[in-house]
Amino acid sequence: MTEIFVFVGPSISRAEAAKICDAVFLPPVQQGDIIRAIERRPRCIGIIDGFFEAVPAVWHKELLLALSVGIPVFGAASMGALRAAELDQFGMIGFGEVYRWYKAGLITADDEVAVLHAPAELGYAPLTVSTVDIRDFASEATREGVVSSDFLADAVSCAQQLHFKDRTWDNLAQALLQTQTNESVSRFFDFTHRGAPGVKARDASKLLRALSAWTCKPAQDVGPNFELRNTIFLHRLEEGERAHPQTAMSDEEWTNFTTQAGAGLRAVARETAATLGWTLHPMEVSSCATEYLISHGAFEPCMQEEWLREQQLTEASFWSLVNDILFVRRLRKLQSLRRGAFESLAISTRDPG
Q1: In the chain, what are the domain boundaries?
Q2: Residue among 1, 19, 86 nearest 47 (CA)
Q3: Cα 256 to the chain's mean position, in Å?
């Protein structure tokens, strides 16, 4: 048990994280990831970033499971700070300002740390700004006399009113101009663009430095301070993630969206597509439509029209279905890549390429 697992995304780049800590870096955590990590028996687990909306968030119970089997769990900056504030009484260790803010009740909403970010191929780079970073910049600007305390209150209020997917610096500026002068808004934005890291990045660095120092100490057996009840929900999660079937499923299984579960899958795929900015090429859509119709025995145009009538599908609803099929396939590939990261442990500081 020698490796450190760290779940990281938009709060700090992998390149920057690798300069601080020798670890296995994994994508932002989501439900089931800790179950898979436990099977690898890491020396400890660090959580910085996690998914909030497109997929189920990491579950408290799986973090308790890790603690119950003697794997220390640390958290900071984003999802890690939130979960640490909720579970530190059970032994999860929190670091940084954001953790302390959650713990003290100064902030309570999970979207305080949420941001829209780029996909894995672009390093999960943040595309919007978190409310905690806006709080931090505005507080520091107030302390240095750049803006007034009224400006601080307005900045936080405006940030809270913007959905995290829309919380860009430009949108924040437009909102602030409703109550603040052009001069004060300009001073504030000049201040934020000095190049100083935000509170999430600072907290992430602090956690990584702590993990690096912690692993230099002799390993200790850390027992839990609680008794974990193995509920039916935890059992199902463990069984499902340990089995994590990765055998190829037929397109028929993936595109039979007539059931309630299928409708849910389509919704998740559409939300993921919107979040990650997926687009479809017309040729890709046309090819998929032809493939789908032929797989259902509709070989000729006249047969295809008849099939659509039998299925009570309009032309618009059919093309919507085709788009969903393509988004689901991408979602499936994305999930497969995530699982593959655990299987190969290829994303590590020992192989920074």
Answers
A1: 4-119+200-231, 127-197, 247-341
A2: 86
A3: 28
